[in-house]
Each structure stands twice: as structure tokens, then as C-alpha cells.
Amino acid sequence: MSQASISVRQAWWRNPWRKPRFLQALTWGYLAWSIMPVLIAVAFSFNAGRSRSAWQGFSFRWWVGDPTAAESLLYRPDLRTAMFQTVRLGVLTMLLAVPLGTLFAIGIDRWRGRGPGLANFTMLLSFVVPEIIVGVSLFLAFTFLLKFVTLGTTAQILGLVTYQMSYPVIVVRARLLSIGKEYEEAAMDLGAAPTQSVRRVLLPLLYPAIFASAVLVFADSIDDFITVRYLSSTASSEPLSVKIYDSARAAPPPSVNAAATFMLVVTLVAITIGFIVYRRVTRGERVEAAREFVGFQV
Amino acid sequence: MGSEAATAVPKARRRAGEGGGARISGVLYPRWYWPSFAGPATIWLVLLFVLPFYVVFAVAFGTSDLFGNALPVYQPWYWSGSTFTAILDRFYGGDAFYQPALVRTLVYVPAASLLCLILGYGVAYYVARHSGRRKGLYLVLLISPFWISYLMRIYAWQGLLQPDGLINRILTQLHVISSPVSWLQGRPTTVVLGLVYGYIPYMILPLFGFLDRIDQNLLEAGRDLGAGPFKTFVRVTLPLSRQAILAGMVIVALPMFGDYFTNDLLGSTKTSMYGNLIDNALSLPGGSPQAASLVLMLLVLLIVPLLYYLRSTKRAQEAL
Amino acid sequence: MHPHPWPMGRMNRRDFLRRSAGAAVALPGAAAILAACTKPGQTSRTSIEERLLANPARPDHPVTLPLYQDPISPSTPIEKGATLQIYNWADYLWPRLFREFEDKFSKYDVKVSLTTFNDIDGGVAKLSAGQVAPDVFFPDPSELTKLVVSKLLQPLQHDLLPNLAANYWSEFQNPFYDQQWRYTVPYTVYTTGIAYRRDHIPDSKIQSMSNPYEILWDPEYKGRVTIYDDRRETMSMALMKNGIKDVNTGDPKLIDMAKDDVLKLIDATNAQLTINGVYVKMAEDVYWVGSSWSGDVVAAAIYYLPKGVSPDVLGFWYPSDGGGVIGNDLMVIPSSANSPRLAHEFVNFMLDKTNSFANFENWNGYQTPMNSINPSALVPKVIPPSLEEAVVVPKFFDTGSFILGVSPSVDALYSQAWDEIKAGG
Known about the structure:
The structure holds three protein chains of three kinds. Chain A is mainly alpha-helical. Chain A contains 14 helices and no strands. Chain A has helices spanning 3-14, 21-44, 61-64, 77-110, 115-128, 131-145, 153-164, 166-179, 182-189, 194-222, 226-230, 240-248, 255-281, 286-294. Chain B is an all-alpha fold. Chain B has a domain at 98-283: Orthogonal Bundle (MetI-like fold), CATH 1.10.3720.10. In chain B, a hairpin with a 5-residue loop joins strand 1 (63-64) and strand 2. In chain B, helix 5 (99-130) runs parallel beside helix 9, helix 5 runs antiparallel to helix 12 (242-257) and helix 10 crosses helix 11. The longest helix of chain B is centred in the middle third of the chain and has 32 residues, at 99-130. Chain C is α/β, with parallel strands linked by helices. Chain C has a domain at 190-326 and 402-423: 3-Layer(aba) Sandwich (D-Maltodextrin-Binding Protein, domain 2), CATH 3.40.190. In chain C, the strands form two sheets. In chain C, strands 4, 5, 6, 7, 8, 9 and 10 form a seven-stranded mixed beta sheet that branches. In chain C, strands 2-1-3 form a three-stranded parallel beta sheet. In chain C, helix 4 (95-104) links the parallel strand 1 and strand 2 (111-117). The N and C termini of chain C lie far apart (54 Å).
């Protein structure tokens, strides 16, 4: 190696703001590792054969093929039911968990005394306790004590909301702490009633956080497996995750991959539309929301 | 909550907010006003989080009928510890056949969490500090695995790792291995990597959120004082991210203790973990008391790290 | 046609006795005090149930299961706009038959929905927890007594099942596990033997072994062995390997030995516990040898082999003296059924010889014990010659070992052994 190239290398090494090649390689390697199976899952939904390890040619067989064979996504009512149940659980959980969690976060932030500490502790506990504990305890509760809750969609939503409520609490509370209270005080100094100051001043300030937590809750609910499986009943209450798990232990046709791919597209479209709507509602705050979304932590 | 550490709110501003707090909650708002905001969620938690735990106790310490179906007992004075102690005996003693699964869990989970941390920190650090104008693209890519079911992704791995799967074919082609490796036949490496794969996004995102908000000036100050990039990292960035690391570790490690599907799809009974014990018990005839006992034991096992974490986040919050 | 084989008078008398006894105890106040004083969990059971559970049915000990309710009236109208809930193993019923059933009853606007379970223990657990409320369920005889005395099943109305008596083997007329066919009708029959890939393991290797079960323990096939993720089935396989023909044994030593042997098997060959190991994964060449239900290997040959692969690659061994494990699956109607009349129609539909044969031939590979199916004519029309030993003949039900119900205490021994196997050594 020549003297010159060594000195170039040293110069690169000495530069404190150089591109960290190693980290760059690590990041790309990680992204490839994390995304490749997704792409493979999508690709195999177009496989001409049943196999999910050997490529047997391109075909739409598992998407729209042959009604009599009843093996394509289009002619598998059970897969459609599963997709519908997935979306339904995601939407209903979001609609319940986000308002409950947001109100809780505001209340806990302002309420003084001993109560909020305990309530907040329980809330955080529900966030960090392994999901299997929540799932099994709710299953036993609905089976033995709260028998009026039938297993199936109702039980699943109650379970999911219990487990997901902490997301909006954490995200909204972080936002509350960063915006402080002076805007509200200013509003009240200008004569706004308490309810008005919450609705007109506080809530709009919280929109980015609420939006971010809604996305989080939705994404996590449609991906949920443990709680929804233990609280499921007959096939109509089994979302795609349970269906995939059961299929993996039986004879999984690539139409399951097609269903997951379809869900991927639906979710992406839903998120994009949500984001556009959100940008219209809160002009200029979109960077904030993105940060809020990825920056959540306990 | 650690978010406070991460959000790095200017102190002066927060103090001002604090000062006004008394006025907000004391003078203009009626006493019940703020508690009523937190009320619905609190009642929800009491009914659907706290009460079910009582049922878990009632089932674990209850009895069974003639067919082995669980009969929960709600009066603590009638509780019987026979199932619980019988299960406990399976963890230690002469016939401790649950012990290997517990030991595996206590090895796999820390190993997988640590790998998540090392890999996740590197990726989060790179994206936060060096991705420049493409940060948005990187973020979308980092989040992308979230949009397809975790089960689907693990299931795709199953296909990739089969004897005739892509991984074996590539490795045979490259002459790394001479005959296909059976990755899915109870290999700890496969299960640990599967866990890392499934949970690492939950590590990267909070770390990124934190690293992205570190004040650039702090780092430049370190540099101005003569510290190299490595030293700056060790002396400034790393200590600052202590709370974020703790949060990330908790978020990934705790659910792993209850994970059973990763092993179900990528391992065998040879790599059974604690979560598998619970899930197996639930599908045995009359297995509810056994499952309930296992759930209580898991809770006891995790209560110390849980409380430590909740306490340290509270401290971090108070320190602000 | 069956007249009501059960005397209605007895039902009424017992009902009456129970009610009057209840009235005597249920004095207001006293009952509350009693409830507070007795330790919870001690429910009284009539001795009939206890005796039934302790002495489950055996071929030489036929059992007439007790009745707790009347079968539905034959004149019950067909439920309109109902969704018939089927609760079955995965891939065990041809989906096209569901569509045909829907078409047949289209004027009643009927839908069929299938919920699956992964193993029979899980299926029974979900049913008894009330997690599912199916109209038709597919258990096997080993769970039957427990299901009946737990009042989870309803008696069948034979007037609505004309296909039953008309079509079935005499061995299955009035079966010993359910005299008078009060609760069950047969769905399929099968043997449990060893399936293998003939392209990796020559027939001669298995034929020459003095104890072919031992091939599953052979480390030569490390990573290529599958056994069933099914408690009683896998324990039976290990008992058989040790020459124990009584696969319902209650001897703790034998159960322990079988468990140790299964653990040794997993240790030596890294065997996977699966349900789809044979019919899906052996067809895909993932596994080369495994414990197998006869129907699974036939299904692999007729449906799951990749295109262009000859069914000759699959082989099946079953003891030539017919002394292996045999079994049959059942159709029952749970007491929770929302559409009992439609459930009867579905059972009768599946008992139809055309439908039953179509299900076997096109989809699940499991024979039905029907007179219309001549076992000796199945090869090579339905079953490839290499799988000749997978054909089930009536004789096996005299020579083979049936997995049947065991008393609760013995059941607990099997459960604990299985739990240990699943926890991994």
C-alpha cells in the first residue's frame, strides 16, 4: 500500500465528522434483514405452486384463481372475514383507546393529590407487563367471573383497549409536559371558560400527539396476536394474525400471503390518507407529529 | 416517565408551567374537574386489568371438578396452594422438568435484548446523526416492518429457513455449508435471532427519538474541549441516553418473557421458553389452574425489574 | 330406522326426583348458609358419572352414555338465515362441500363457517371453556364420555340421519363406545403407522427391521423426523415401540417409560412435534420419516405433493399383523348448537356416500367406514400402490389398539408426561 493512500485513510479517520462507514453498513444490513422477509412474503403470494420456499413461476392463482378450487383470496371467505376482523379490531380499539388515554393523560397531568400517582402507576404497569399475562388473565376473567362478556369481538376489543390505552397516555403526556401550561393560562386570562380553554387551546396543541398515538394504537392492534387469540371465539372473530399462526401449523396456502399483502396495501393507504387529512387539519405541524410518533417512550 | 428526559424541555419553561399549576387546578377549576378526565380510564383499568388478576389468583388457588375443569375460589380463606406448589416443584427439585425452559428463557431473553440494543443503537445513532436529508426515507424504512403482521414476517422466515429454503440454497451455493442446515429444528441461535428480529423495531424507535433530540451544541462542546468522536460518544452521548436505553431494554425484554409463537414457528420443544409453558398449559385438559400459577410466577419473576424500571423513570422525571 | 332407543319415562322420573330433592334443600336462607359454609368446588355428582369416568368404554366393556336432554324433535324446522358453525381439525373437510351444502339449502339462506383447532386437547379445552359454541364438532372416542357427562353434547335425532344405518360397516353399527349411537356418528377411520420418503429411505430398510418403530429413533435421520403434536397419539406410538399393546394403560411406570422414550427420540433426531409434518412437510420433502395417520400420508399423495412429483416417493408401514394403533373420528352436535336441525342436516349430508367419498378422494385422504367403499379396490384408483398399507380394513378393528378414554387420574398422568415432553428436556 502506498504512503499516499495511508495518509488519505488517516485523514479520513481523523476527521471527526466523517461518514461512519461501519454504521452505514450496519444500518443498510439491518434494513435489508428486516425488509427482505416482507418482500419475500409478498413475492410468494404470486407463486404458481403451493410452496413458500421454492419459486414455481408467476401466477395470480392465489389472488383471483379458480372459484371451484376455493383456494384463492377472492374465493376464500374465511380469509376475507379474517381481514375484516383485523381492520375492525384496529379501528374500534383506536376509537376507544385514544380518547380514554388522552383524557387520562390530561387528567393525570393536572390532578393533584395521591390518586393520580396510583392510577398512573397502574397504567404504566399495564404497558410494561408482558402481554401473555394480560391475555391469560382476561381470558380467565371472561371465562369464570365476567361471564356476561362473551369471548369473541367484544372480549377482544376490551382486551386490546386495556393493553393499548397506555400508548396515548405516554405520548400525550410527553407532549403536555413539553407545551407547558402558559397557553391555557393565557386563554383563561383572556376570559375563556375552563372547558373552552381545554377544547379550543389545549386539544389543538395536542393534535400531533393524538394523531401519532392513534396511528400507534391502530398499527399495534392490527398486529396483535396473543390477546386476540386467547379472547377469540369462532372463526369470525379470528383476525389475520391468528389465521396465519393456525395456517402455519396446518397447510398454509399462499393465499394467506396474498391476504397479508392486501392488508399491507390497505394499511399503507389508510395511513397515507390519515396523514394527508392530518396535514390539512394542522398545517405546519407535520414534522412534530413524525417526531412524536417515533419518539414515544416511557 | 422517561419521555421527560427525552423531550428535554427547557427547565425555565417547565418551572413556569409548574407555578401556574396550582392556580389551574385550585382556583378556576372545581376539585372534581381534572380527576373526572382520568376517571373513565381508571375505572376501565380497575375492572379489566386489576380485577382479572384477582381471578388469576382465584383460579391458581382454586380447585377442579371431576373432569379436571377449573373451579375458581374467590374467598382467600379457602384458597389451596396444592396446584401452585406442584408447579413450583417443577422448577426445582428432583423432577424439575420446567427448569430447562426457565433457564433457556433467562439466557435467550437477555441475549436477544442485548443484541437488540447493540444493533439498534448503531442503527438509531446512524439515522439520527448521519442520515442527513434522507432522514425521512430512513424513518419510513425503519417503520416499514410494522405494517405487515409480525406473524407473517416470522412465517416468511420459516420458508426462508427450510431445508430447501433460500438461506440454505445461498449458503450451499457459496460453499459455506456442504449440505442444508436444519435451522428450524430447535436451534437456540435461530430462536434468539427470531426474537431480535421481532422486537428490535421497538428498541430502535425510542432510541432514535432520543438521539435525534440531543442538543448538537453539547456534542460540539465536547469536540471543542478536545474530545474525539469516540470520546464524545462515551462521555456525552452514552450517559445522556441511559434512560432511553433502559426504556428500550424494558420494552423489548418484558414481552419476550411471554413470547411463545416465535419458538412455535422457528424452534422446537428443545428451545421451549417460559411462554410456551403457559400456552401449553392452557391447551391441556383442565390446564387453567396450571396456566394461572405460571402467570403468577412470571409476575413474581419480573416484579423486581418492573418496579426498578418504574421507579427509575419516576426519578428521571423528578430530576427534570 | 331407529325408533327412540331411549325410554322417555326414565328421563322424566329422574328429572322429577332431582327437582324434588332440589326443592327440599333450597329452603330460602338455609341454602345461603349452606353455600357459605361448604367449601367451594365440592359439587355433588351422581355416582353414574363417576363410575362412567372411572370405567371408560372398552371393546369388551360397551358403554351406554346417559341422557340429560331429549334429542330435537324430527319436526323441528330448518333454521333460516343461519350460519352453521363447524369446529374441526384444519384441512380435514373439503371446503367445496361447504359450498355444496350452502347451495343445497340455499332457500334457507344458510352459510357454513369453519373454525379449526390444532390438536384435540385444544379443541376440547376451547369447547368446555365455552370459548366456542359450534353446531358440529369432530372429536374422537377418547374424549366422548367426558364431553357427555359434562353435558356438552346433545343426543342425536336418528330420524334426521337416515344415511347412517344405511351406509356403515357392521363394525360401526352400535359401537361399543356409544351404544345405540346416542351422541355420535363415525366420520373417518384410520391407522397410525410410519410414513417415509422412499427416495431417501428404501422400503427394504423398514421391512428388514425387527421393530420398525425404532426408525424414528435413528440419528441417521436427524432433523428429518416428525412426530405428532398430539398427547395420546405420540404416547401410544412410544408404548407400541416398547411392545405395549394396551395404549390406554394406567400403569405409571409404563407411561413414564413412554415419556422417556419420546424425550430420547427428540434428543436423538431433533424431531419436531407437528400436525402438518406428514401431509404438508413430508410432501415438500422437509421430513423424511414420521409417525403418521394413514389418512395424512394419503392426503400428501393425492393433494399436497408438488406438481411433477410421483406419489411413489411416499411409503407407509403398518404392523402386518394389524396390531398397530387404530382410531376413528366422530361427528357430534354440541348442546350449545344454535342451529341443531341444520346441524343434523349437515351430519346427514356428510354421511351421504357420494359426499363422504368426495371428501376422502379429493381432499383429506381419510377413509370412511362405509359399505360403498371397498377397501381392496382403493389401490391404485385412489391410493397409490406404494401406500398400500395405508388402506384401512374392517379387520383392523379387531386386531388393533384403540386410543380410548381413561379415568381422570390416569388422564392426569398422560397430561403431565406430555407437559414434560412439550417443555423440552
